[in-house]
Structure formats: structure tokens, C-alpha cells
């Protein structure tokens, strides 16, 4: 049976890139397990619009532990008045590790949002960058792009469930979209965060669904 298109909907696939896969410098737990559900979702073609994000850092990015003397990956510092996790060098512009994952068919994408391009500002969300030196979170323009196309419902998959997917979902909800996280199409940096991630999503009115029941409820 052919599934009908979900009206006024968009699928956002966050940072599905080799550097976040097993063997990558910032591997998410069980990240390779999301490839099949994502491919199935794309094959069903149920969404009106499709968006991908791509982490795309210049060398020496401020979020890299290597950019801070005496620091190591996963240390936390204060940056512009807010906590900043320091990451291993990852998704360097133009490298194979920053490419969109080759096992996924990206042809349906209407737009690709590259983020983390500012060397002094980190960027987790598809909608807003992290805090900059002025204490602001600059918009990526995605919310306006979606509104121009009458999108009301946003479905999110990708990496990492506890970081960039979470921030994207929170910002989508704050921007007024009905927001759904496709749980089995995401994977976390560490599964130890899953309980808190799920709690945070539900408390903020973000629904958790699965790839075989995209219109479901928690």
C-alpha cells in the first residue's frame, strides 16, 4: 500500500555524515543503524519538503578541543557566557568525513543547510547557530524558508539525537512548528543521555515517533 504524503510537512535530516559514524572521530553510538530507516523514509516519499544539514567546519574551529591549549575532547568550557563542549576535530570542510553519507540517496533534498562555518561560533541547530560573541543566536533562514512553503509539521532524523537533533527540535518547536523526532532514525553521542533527551522532548511538546508510524503520538 502506498502511503499518502503528509500535508504541510517537512523532513529534516541532521548531519548524517561519516565523521559521526562508527570509526569516525566523533562517532555516535549505533549511528550506522539509522541508515536503513532513513532510506526507507526517503523511499516512501511522504513529505512535501526535504531538508538536510551538513556540519561544515573550517580548520581550527572554536569548538575543537585542539583549538584550546591544555583541553581534551568532551571537556566543557564557558564560551560567550554559555557552556561549550569541546569536540574532536570533525567535519572539516571538503573532507570525506564531512560529506553527506554515501549510502543515503540525497536526491530528494530541496535544500542543504551547512552549519558551523563561522570559525568562532558553534552551530548545532538547523534553525539557529549557537551563541556568538554578541550573545545572540543568528538565524539560518530555515524557519522562513519553511513558512514560505506553508510547512506546519517538521519531522527530524539524524545525528546526534542528544545534541544537534535535540537543538533542532527545540528550535523548531520554539519557531511554532508541530515537531516530531523520528526516534529510530536518530542516534546519540552516548545512549546514557537517552532518558534525559526523551524527557526533554516530551516536556517541551515535541512528539516522538518511529519510522513505521510517522503520524503517531508518544
In short:
The chain has helices spanning about 35-45, 140-150, 165-175, 195-205, and strands at about 5-15, 45-55, 75-80, 80-85, 110-115, 155-160, 180-185, 205-210.
Q: Can you walk me through this structure?
A:
It contains 4 helices and 8 strands, in the order βαββββαβαβαβ. The strands form 2 sheets. The chain has a 6-stranded parallel β-sheet with strand order 5-2-1-6-7-8, sandwiched between helices. It starts with 5 loop residues before the first strand and ends in a 9-residue tail after the last strand. β3 (76-79) and β4 (82-85) form a beta hairpin. It is globular. It has a single domain (6-59, 89-209), classed as Isochorismatase-like (Rossmann fold, 3-Layer(aba) Sandwich). The mean pLDDT is 95. The longest helix is centred in the last third of the chain and has 11 residues, at 164-174. The chain has helices spanning 35-44, 142-148, 164-174, 194-203; strands at 6-14, 47-55, 76-79, 82-85, 111-115, 153-159, 178-187, 207-209. The protein is 17% helix and 23% strand. With 218 residues, the chain is of the alpha/beta class.
Q: What are the low-pLDDT stretches, counting only 5+ consecutive residues below 50?
A: none
What do we call the CATH homologous superfamily?
Isochorismatase-like
Annotation, overall tally of beta strands: 8
Tell me which CATH architecture applies here: 3-Layer(aba) Sandwich
The ordered string of helix (H) and strand (E) elements is EHEEEEHEHEHE
Tertiary shape: globular
The proportion of residues in beta strands is 15-25%
Largest sheet: 6 strands, parallel
Radius of gyration, whole Å: 16 Å
Q: Give the count of helical stretches.
A: 4
Helix content: 10-25%
According to CATH, the fold-level topology is Rossmann fold
Strand order of the largest sheet: 5-2-1-6-7-8
Q: Roughly what is the average pLDDT, rounded to an integer?
A: 95
The top level CATH class name: Alpha Beta
EC number: 3.5.1.19
Keywords: Hydrolase, Metal-binding, Pyridine nucleotide biosynthesis
GO biological process, one term: pyridine nucleotide biosynthetic process
Protein name: nicotinamidase
Amino acid at each position: 500500500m502506498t502511503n499518502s504524503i503528509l500535508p504541510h510537512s517537512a523532513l529534516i535530516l541532521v548531519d548524517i555524515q561519516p565523521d559521526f559514524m562508527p570509526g569516525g572521530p566523533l562517532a555516535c553510538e549505533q549511528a550506522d543503524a539509522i541508515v536503513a530507516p532513513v532510506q526507507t523514509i526517503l523511499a516512501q516519499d511522504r513529505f512535501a519538503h526535504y531538508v538536510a544539514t551538513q556540519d561544515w567546519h573550517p580548520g581550527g574551529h572554536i569548538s575543537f578541543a585542539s583549538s584550546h591549549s591544555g583541553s581534551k575532547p568532551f571537556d566543557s568550557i564557558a564560551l560567550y557566557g554559555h557552556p561549550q563542549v569541546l569536540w574532536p576535530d570533525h567535519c572539516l570542510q571538503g573532507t570525506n568525513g564531512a560529506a553527506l553519507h554515501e549510502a543515503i540517496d540525497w536526491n530528494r533534498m530541496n535544500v542543504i543547510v551547512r552549519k558551523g562555518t563561522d570559525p568562532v561560533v558553534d552551530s548545532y541547530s538547523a534553525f539557529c547557530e549557537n551563541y556568538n560573541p554578541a550573545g545572540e543566536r543568528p538565524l539560518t533562514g530555515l524557519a522562513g524558508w519553511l513558512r514560505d512553503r506553508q510547512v506546519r509539521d517538521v519531522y527530524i532524523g539524524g545525528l546526534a539525537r542528544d545534541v544537534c537533533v535535540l537543538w533542532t527540535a527545540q528550535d523548531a518547536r520554539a519557531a511554532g512548528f508541530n515537531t516530531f523526532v523520528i526516534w529510530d532514525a536518530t542516534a546519540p553521542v552516548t545512549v546514557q543521555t537517552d532518558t534525559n533527551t526523551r524527557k526533554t522532548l516530551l516536556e517541551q511538546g515535541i512528539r516522538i515517533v518511529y519510522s513505521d508510524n510517522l503520524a503517531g503520538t508518544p
